[in-house]
Amino acid sequence: MFAFVSSSSITWSQKNDVQAATFNVASCAIVGGVGAWVNKSPSQKGGRAFLSGMLKGAAGGLCVYGGKRMIYSFSQTNHGGWAWASKVTHAVGLSLVENAASNRPLLSVWHFHFGFNRLELTIGNSAQLRYRMMPFALGGFIYASTRGRLNFAETLRVGQPVFFSDNLRIPRVDFEPVGLTVANSIMLNENGRDSKVLGHELIHAYQYEERGYLNTYLNQARERWLNKSKLTKTYGQWVYTDANFVLDNLFYYLGSIGNTCYFDNPYEQEANFYSGRLSYRDIEY
Asked: Which residues contact residue 174 at a Cβ distance below 8 angstroms, ignoring those fewer than 6 apart?
């Protein structure tokens, strides 16, 4: 229930910078607090774990907000440096929140996504770098490749897989979008290349990645399952199950119910806020 409330409340909570910063800090604090309580050790007091997780999550939320706010500068300038600065800052914020929700030390694990690839750097007595593949993001990448052509230059410029397509028609939408994002793979129509559109889609990629907070609530159950056999251990070693993709799509669908306009969806409103507002005029060509 909290996950749905935090996702759907984007509509009212991000109409100016103060509200946007407050929303990101507060929602990440709650995510961190609840996760820390869920993942607390038997000897740890629940209230103390919750408070510690909240403080850590709030720090991450500030970075998450800062990363998304940089997308507006990218949308206005089309400068790839802003896209990468945004991506790195956003990744730092997500790492802090996941550490908080996992009830780990704040700076213990850092992760970075590039398409369906996940790199994790664990800081302990010695640093350990780990690679894992995200299956739902891989599915999004494969789907995008069936509808368009991967543009390597644009992908490297903005830090997310970018495909160009001649046709982005989707069911139950009465216009053809100029941009579409599945997990964190972005598709752009050949006729709709624009930094504001790309910025809008970058925020959608971030929305998918942000729901990864919720995977931490399953840490203990996942560890029990992974330790059942050699096969599951191998799976856990090389695969990070990005179940947040399923929740992300569910929340998007719930946010579209009863809307009279495509852009009434909370996900679209958030993407509009950080990228510069799109309207039907922007997406027609």
From this structure: none
Nearest to 100 by CA among 44, 38, 42, 43: 38
Residue length of the chain: 285
Main-chain dihedrals φ then ψ at residue 138, nearest 5 degrees: -65, -40
Residue 164: half-sphere exposure toward Cβ, Cα within 13 Å: 10
Would you say 176 and 188 are in contact if contact means Cβ atoms under 8 Å apart?
no
The residue whose two tokens read 């579209």 is 256
State pTM to two decimals. Answer: 0.90
Domain limits at 14? 2-283
Q: State the average pLDDT over residues 131-158.
A: 96
Which amino acid is located at 104 in the chain? R
Q: Which residues of 54-79 are buried (b: 16+ CB within 10 A; e: fewer)?
A: bebbbbbbbbbbbbbbbbbbbbeebe
State residue 130 phi and psi, 5-degree precision: -130, 140
CA dist 177 and 155 (Å) reads: 20
Please give the order of strands across the beta sheet that includes 117-122. Answer: 109-114, 117-122, 128-133
Residue 258 CA to residue 264 CA, distance in Å, equals 9
Nearby residues of 155 by Cβ (< 8 Å), 6 or more positions away: 161, 162
Q: Which of 69-78, 129-138, 183-192 has the lowest mean pLDDT?
A: 183-192
Domain count, the chain: 1
In this structure, the number of other CB atoms found within 10 A of the CB of residue 11 comes to 15
- For residue 205, give both structure tokens: 């990629």
What per-residue confidence (pLDDT) applies to 277?
67
Pinpoint the alpha helices (H) of 39-79: 46-77
